[in-house]
């Protein structure tokens, strides 16, 4: 058993026993009430599932096991000479609830490097797809093709004790996380670099190796990739990709099936695909205005035009957050710290201008609950700055990072013995009857 798994096993047993006791003793305790609006409008604010890895506060943003984004950027171990955290560290933190040491992240990185070999048939399957296939579709197809490797599915077929589910889910999750960078890089090089593939370098950390296999060798892109992979990992359990992975996993579908389902959700423009949409939106804005830096008034007019056409302004708004997303702020800080001192970048500057202009316009609509930017608002322009201009690929990077959070959660789901998820539903007729009965009782 690897050391991370040993530490997890030691932790999971007592937590599972505590949760069982909690359900037994306090199972009837009411956590809240919900409204007709919540039932119709995406269950916002309804507490309906337990997620151990992170918690989102509407005002303050995400905390991973209690640590905010600025705290994890400061406290998590860094690569030698590096200034941004290693994603290995946030996975360790989410899984165990403890900050890792430098040695812990090194061990985890080596563990993933040992598991990183992608079976050949996965590449064969990808090679059969038309090159025009969207990178997110290719990503999901590759994850599904890797499902042949599922240790959970194989063990379940033979017959396993419930208490051992987490062990196989752990193995599948670790293998998946280890292999995703190679798969993502293969899709990128196949689609955009004439299939000129780059072998992994097992001496590099997980995120730097991803940058290397994508074809970006400079230190700056590796630093960006470490931060990018760290800040996109998790956003508590209710977002589409996390919730879908959890839901599908609750049917004891193996981690490949569950994660692929989650990635189909991430590929939606209201969720992860927004990072691609933001870049397209900014480029269209620039093109329409003849290139260069637009004025604030021009940006204002462009936002109003977007709204008047019944479209969303991508990168703005959030289902839970009610302030600027700290993941946006971290990326803004990255721009101001590492890029701007070498010379301002036009697209990054446009993002800063939109940040100034958009919120009052969105607020003035009177219906948008959060007029502030989310994570997707800034990520594309940073990647573009370092030469990754293929914006259809951006959501795949989001997906590679998101694997760390949703799979850490899936391991916990099975360790805690969560049952199949099956919320109740109601018809509109049923709602009307309930309202009428309550009003009649009052009269
Ligand atoms: N531009 C235009 N209209 C917006 C808007 C935006 N950025 N954000 C919300 N609205 C609209 C909604 O479409 C809704 O309109 P209708 O009442 O006509 O249907 C209204 O404002 C109320 O929506 P809300 O309660 O404020 O927001 P939701 O919780 O329904 O949706 C989100 C949240 C993120 C889907 C939405 O803000 C949005 O579409 N933003 C743009 C896409 C985006 O950036 N998504 C990425 C989110 C982060 C991620 O998951 O990666």
Can you walk through the features of this model?
The chain has two domains: 54-271 and 391-415, Orthogonal Bundle (Citrate Synthase, domain 1), CATH 1.10.580; 274-385, Cytochrome P450-Terp, domain 2 (Cytochrome p450-Terp, domain 2), CATH 1.10.230. The protein has helices at residues 3-26, 36-40, 69-75, 87-96, 102-114, 120-128, 135-146, 151-158, 165-192, 206-214, 219-231, 240-250, 255-266, 274-288, 296-308, 326-339, 346-364, 376-385, 394-415, 428-442, and strands at 54-57, 61-64, 67-68. It is mostly helical. The mean pLDDT is 96. The longest helix has 28 residues, at 165-192. The radius of gyration is 22 Å and the shape is globular. 61% of the residues lie in helices and 2% in strands. β2 and β3 form a beta hairpin. 44% of the residues are buried. The protein has 20 helices and three strands. It has a three-stranded antiparallel sheet with strand order 1-2-3. α7 crosses α9 (165-192). Residues 239, 270-272, 274, 307, 312-319, 367-370, 374-376 line the site of carboxymethyldethia coenzyme *A.
CATH class of the largest domain: Mainly Alpha
Question: In CATH terms, what is the fold-level topology of the largest domain?
Answer: Citrate Synthase, domain 1
Helix content: 55-70%
Average pLDDT over all residues: 96
Radius of gyration: 22 Å
Which stretches are poorly predicted, pLDDT < 50 over at least 5 residues? none
CATH architecture of the largest domain, please? Answer: Orthogonal Bundle
Which ligands does the model contain, each kind named once? carboxymethyldethia coenzyme *A
Structural class: mainly alpha
> For the largest beta sheet, what order do the strands appear in spatially?
1-2-3
* Biggest β-sheet description: 3 strands, antiparallel
How do the helices and strands follow one another from N- to C-terminus?
A: HHEEEHHHHHHHHHHHHHHHHHH
Q: Tell me the span between the first and last alpha carbons.
A: 66 Å
**Count of extended strands:** 3
Instruction: Supply the number of structural domains.
Output: 2
CATH superfamily of the largest domain: Citrate Synthase, domain 1
Q: What general outline do the C-alpha atoms trace? A: globular
């Amino acid at each position: 058993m690897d050391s991370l798994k040993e530490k997890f096993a030691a932790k999971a047993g007592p937590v599972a026993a505590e949760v069982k006791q909690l359900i037994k003793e306090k199972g009837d305790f009411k956590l809240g009430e919900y409204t007709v609006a919540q039932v119709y409008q995406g269950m916002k604010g309804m507490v309906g599932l337990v997620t151990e890895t992170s918690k989102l506060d509407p005002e303050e943003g995400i905390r991973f096991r209690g640590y905010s984004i600025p705290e994890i950027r400061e406290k998590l171990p860094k690569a030698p000479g590096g200034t941004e955290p290693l994603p290995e560290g946030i996975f360790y933190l989410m899984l165990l609830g403890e900050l890792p040491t430098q040695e812990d992240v090194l061990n985890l990185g080596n563990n993933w490097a040992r598991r990183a070999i992608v079976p050949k048939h996965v590449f064969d399957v990808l090679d059969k797809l038309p090159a025009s296939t969207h990178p997110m579709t290719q990503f999901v197809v590759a994850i599904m093709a890797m499902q042949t490797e599922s240790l959970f599915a194989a063990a379940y077929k033979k017959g396993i004790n419930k208490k051992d589910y987490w062990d196989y889910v752990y193995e599948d999750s670790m293998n998946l996380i280890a292999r995703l960078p190679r798969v993502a890089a293969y899709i990128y090089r196949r689609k955009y670099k004439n299939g000129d593939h780059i072998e992994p370098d097992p001496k590099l950390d997980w995120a730097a190796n991803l940058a290397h296999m994508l074809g970006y060798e400079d230190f700056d892109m590796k630093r960006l990739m470490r931060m990018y992979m760290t800040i996109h990992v998790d956003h508590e359990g209710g977002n589409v990709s996390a919730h879908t992975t959890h839901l599908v996993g609750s049917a004891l579908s193996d981690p490949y099936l569950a994660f692929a389902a989650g990635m189909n959700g991430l590929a939606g423009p209201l969720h992860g695909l927004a990072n691609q949409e933001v870049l397209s939106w900014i480029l269209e804005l620039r093109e329409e205005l003849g290139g260069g830096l637009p004025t604030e008034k021009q940006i204002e007019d462009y936002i109003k035009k977007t709204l008047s056409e019944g479209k969303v302004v991508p990168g703005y708004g959030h289902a839970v957050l009610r302030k600027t997303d700290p993941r946006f702020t971290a990326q803004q800080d990255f721009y101001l710290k590492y890029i701007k001192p070498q010379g301002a970048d036009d697209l990054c500057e446009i993002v800063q201008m939109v940040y100034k202009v958009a919120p009052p316009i969105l607020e003035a609509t009177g219906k948008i609950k959060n007029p502030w930017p989310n994570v997707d608002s800034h990520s594309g322009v940073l990647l573009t700055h370092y030469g990754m201009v293929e914006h259809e690929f951006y959501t795949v990077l989001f997906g590679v990072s998101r694997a760390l959070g949703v799979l850490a959660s899936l391991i916990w789901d099975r360790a805690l013995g969560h049952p199949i998820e099956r919320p109740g539903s109601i018809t509109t007729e049923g709602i009307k009857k309930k309202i009428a009965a309550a009003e009649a009782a009052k009269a």
